């Protein structure tokens, strides 16, 4: 009884008692589950003093004392444990295999990572695995996996010994052994196969937690597709989901296990639907924040998810808004990614998301930052400015950890962000451009990633980045899908990049795939090639062959772009097959083009007034016969003044350089072809002279040679 133990401890405290007896007394307290209290503390204190004073302990007493002192609480127990393990390390070869496993198990519970101790014990266990029963083998592996020591000698020895004893393994031993090898990341294919065969035929004997552990272990080891274990697990999971046998943690683990396509080749959508239904029946309040996020992530991760999985993600998203303040970095990233993937982001509370991100982002890994950025770009999740600033700042500090997908996701997110004046955002854009100027980094990007990044920088002047992207893009262009080809052409043309070889490669690939282009992709790629001045007759001919069937479906923007294509090609490439196709519809295309609203800015009006004061009379917002809009024009002389505000230029980036963007340069070329002389008034030049009437007039006189 507890009372008897306390009496014995008190008696031992007042009489001379051997270290051996005191060690066994500590063991008695630990076996009874009494970890604290006066009796246990007194026993630990007396045993500690006896051992420090050189008291003798038999091997059996020493192993029991290690186990007991690991279980007991308090400073005396910790010191006693350390003194005992020092002796163990010196005499490891003298212990039996069972005793060594007991000591290793105790040390793992203590979370002690003493290399000398664990190396000595591993060598001893490896030499005596034939002495171990199933529990001993599973406990040995469990102890080392728990403290993350992937000792090859010990795990190899257990892997050799266990298969011959699997018939004697109880379900808990089998599940524990699988978990330990998977957790340690030790490759033992023969053991995994033998264990799978052993477990598959008797899964009825496993409890729900053991089923969950086994599934998790085989998924993590990339072996969940092994038959007959996979089929047996699927059956058991479905049955036990119906009977509501699983705990919240087990459901979360199972969902993760069956949602990792890189870990298994099995189609297990029905399992995830069963898990989703069981989770909703159990109640989402039963799940931890990480378990809830993992559940949503797992259901979203499967492309062919069923209706229950979709419903679960929506419910988790709704339920999480009130719990986001509890979420850690991983849970926060998983939830946002799942919500974006399943189109459930509208259920998120943006304020709660912002608060969670502001707190968690500084602790996020590069992968988690990538997930958050992707979610924001796909679902339009726009956190509050402070949260976004924290995201950009942390991303910039993690650039060295980024992989190809992270670069692509972050760049895309930056381009989608509406907070274009955020200093952290612009600093990240510049840092990202510098990082991607590295040939090795860009070379690892996929065709889609290259297209996304090029599109992200379409409005910025980053010559080194574009040079790097062009080099890598030449090899990846044939792999790009129609939308990516159109996006690539648009990005480079908008940024005014001179890359004839790249346009040639895009034209060649696009012409081959033109039948798969949609209406939007067709007008974008046609307009982009005209903007870039890349007159590829084969591409325009291919577009001419498919465009007629799409003309009625075009948006106003698409028709406006095609009108510009018509104006340009009819003069620069009149023999193109696309010219007569567009010519048949030129009036409708022109109507769309001239319908675009043109509103003069206050600064443009200011320039106009100064010109009038100088006697340079003109029409404002003049439309040429072809429909092109001019800010200030003298039609009879075909002379125009264009005030070019910030939207006409590429953002300068870290260099501070300013360059006209592709669309503006294209308009100037068109006007020149049509016989107009255009005088440009850049906004940054005007800002320098607008402080006084004299400087304004002097500037315009010089520009117009008045």
What would your notes on this structure say?
It is a single chain. This protein has 706 residues and is mainly alpha-helical. Helices cover 64% and strands 4% of the residues. The chain is built from 37 helices and 6 strands. The strands form 2 sheets. It has a 4-stranded mixed beta sheet, with helices on both faces. The protein has a two-stranded antiparallel sheet with strand order 4-5. The chain is elongated.
Features:
single chain; 706 residues; mainly alpha; four-stranded mixed sheet; 37 helices
The first-to-last residue Cα distance is 111 Å
Structural class: mainly alpha
What is the gyration radius calculated from CA atoms? Answer: 36 Å
Shape: elongated
Query: Strand fraction band?
Result: under 5%
Widest sheet: strand order? Answer: 1-2-3-6
Total helix count? 37
The strand count comes to 6
Poorly predicted segments: 262-266
- Sheet with the most strands, sense and barrel status: 4 strands, mixed
Q: Let me know the average pLDDT.
A: 89
How would you summarize what this structure contains?
With 706 residues, the protein is mainly α. Helix content is 64%, strand content 4%.
List the helices and strands and how they pair.
Layout: H1 2-14, H2 19-31, H3 38-52, H4 59-71, H5 75-90, H6 97-109, H7 115-126, H8 134-146, H9 152-161, H10 171-184, H11 189-200, H12 208-220, H13 229-242, H14 248-257, H15 269-282, H16 289-301, H17 307-320, H18 329-341, H19 350-360, H20 366-379, H21 385-397, H22 404-416, H23 423-436, H24 439-443, H25 447-456, H26 463-476, H27 482-494, H28 500-512, H29 519-532, H30 537-546, H31 556-572, H32 578-583, H33 586-594, H34 602-613, E1 619-623, E2 629-634, E3 639-644, E4 649-650, E5 659-660, H35 662-673, E6 677-682, H36 683-689, H37 693-704
């Amino acid at each position: 009884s507890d009372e008897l133990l306390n009496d014995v401890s008190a008696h031992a405290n007042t009489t001379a008692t051997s270290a051996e007896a005191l060690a066994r007394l500590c063991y008695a307290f630990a076996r009874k589950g009494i970890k604290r209290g006066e009796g246990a503390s007194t026993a630990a204190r007396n045993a500690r003093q006896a051992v420090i004073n050189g008291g003798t302990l038999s091997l059996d007493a020493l192993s029991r004392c290690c186990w007991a002192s690991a279980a007991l609480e308090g400073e005396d127990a910790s010191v006693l444990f350390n003194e005992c393990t020092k002796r163990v390390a010196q005499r490891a070869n003298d212990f039996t295999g069972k005793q060594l496993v007991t000591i290793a198990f105790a040390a793992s519970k203590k979370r002690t990572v003493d290399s000398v101790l664990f190396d000595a014990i591993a060598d001893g266990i490896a030499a005596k695995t034939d002495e171990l029963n199933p529990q001993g083998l599973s406990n040995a592996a469990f102890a080392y996996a728990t403290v993350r020591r992937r000792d090859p000698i010990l795990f190899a020895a257990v892997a050799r010994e266990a298969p011959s004893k699997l018939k004697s393994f109880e379900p808990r031993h089998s599940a524990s052994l699988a978990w330990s090898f998977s957790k340690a990341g030790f490759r033992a294919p023969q053991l995994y196969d033998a264990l799978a065969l052993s477990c598959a035929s008797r899964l009825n004997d496993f409890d729900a937690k053991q089923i969950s552990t086994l599934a998790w272990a085989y998924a993590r080891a990339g072996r969940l597709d092994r038959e007959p274990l996979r089929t047996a697990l699927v059956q058991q999971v479905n049955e036990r989901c119906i009977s509501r046998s699983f705990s919240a943690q087990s459901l979360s683990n199972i969902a993760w296990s069956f949602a990792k396509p890189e870990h298994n080749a099995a189609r297990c959508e029905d399992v995830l639907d069963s898990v989703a239904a069981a989770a909703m029946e159990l109640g989402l309040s039963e799940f931890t924040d990480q378990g809830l996020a993992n559940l949503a992530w797992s259901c979203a991760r499967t492309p062919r998810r069923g209706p229950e999985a979709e419903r679960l993600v929506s419910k988790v998203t709704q339920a999480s808004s009130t719990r986001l303040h509890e979420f850690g970095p991983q849970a926060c990233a998983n939830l946002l990614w799942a919500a974006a993937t399943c189109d459930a982001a509208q259920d998120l509370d943006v304020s709660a998301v912002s608060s969670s991100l502001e707190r968690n982002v500084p602790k996020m890994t590069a992968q988690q930052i990538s997930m958050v950025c992707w979610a924001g770009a796909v679902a339009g999740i726009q956190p509050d400015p402070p949260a976004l600033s924290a995201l950009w700042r942390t991303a910039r500090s993690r650039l060295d950890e980024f992989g190809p997908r992270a670069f692509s996701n972050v760049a895309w997110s930056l381009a989608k962000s509406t907070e274009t004046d955020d200093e952290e955002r612009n600093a990240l854009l510049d840092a990202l451009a510098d990082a991607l100027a590295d040939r090795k980094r860009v070379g690892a990007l996929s065709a889609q990633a290259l297209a996304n990044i090029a599109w992200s920088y379409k409005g910025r002047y980053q010559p080194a980045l574009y040079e790097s992207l062009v080099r890598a893009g030449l090899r990846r262009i044939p792999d790009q899908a129609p939308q990516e080809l159109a996006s690539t052409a648009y990005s480079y043309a908008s940024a005014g990049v001179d890359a004839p070889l790249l346009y040639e490669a895009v034209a060649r690939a696009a012409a081959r795939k033109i039948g798969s282009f949609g209406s939007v992709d067709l007008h974008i790629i046609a307009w982009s090639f005209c903007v870039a001045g890349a007159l590829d007759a084969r591409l325009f001919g291919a577009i001419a062959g498919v465009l007629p069937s799409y003309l009625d479906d075009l948006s106003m923007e698409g028709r406006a772009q095609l009108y510009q294509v018509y104006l340009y090609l009819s003069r620069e490439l009149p023999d193109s097959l696309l010219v007569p196709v567009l010519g048949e519809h030129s009036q409708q295309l022109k109507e769309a083009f001239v319908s675009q609203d043109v509103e003069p800015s206050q600064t443009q009006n200011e320039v106009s007034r100064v010109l009038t004061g100088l006697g340079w009379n003109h029409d404002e917002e003049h439309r040429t016969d072809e429909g092109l809009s001019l800010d200030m024009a003298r039609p009879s002389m075909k002379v125009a003044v264009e005030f070019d505000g910030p939207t006409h230029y590429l953002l300068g980036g870290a260099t501070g350089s300013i360059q006209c963007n592709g669309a503006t340069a294209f308009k100037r070329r068109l006007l020149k072809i049509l016989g107009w002389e255009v005088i440009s008034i850049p906004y940054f030049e005007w800002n320098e002279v607008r402080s006084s009437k004299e400087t304004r007039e002097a500037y315009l006189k010089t520009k117009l040679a008045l």
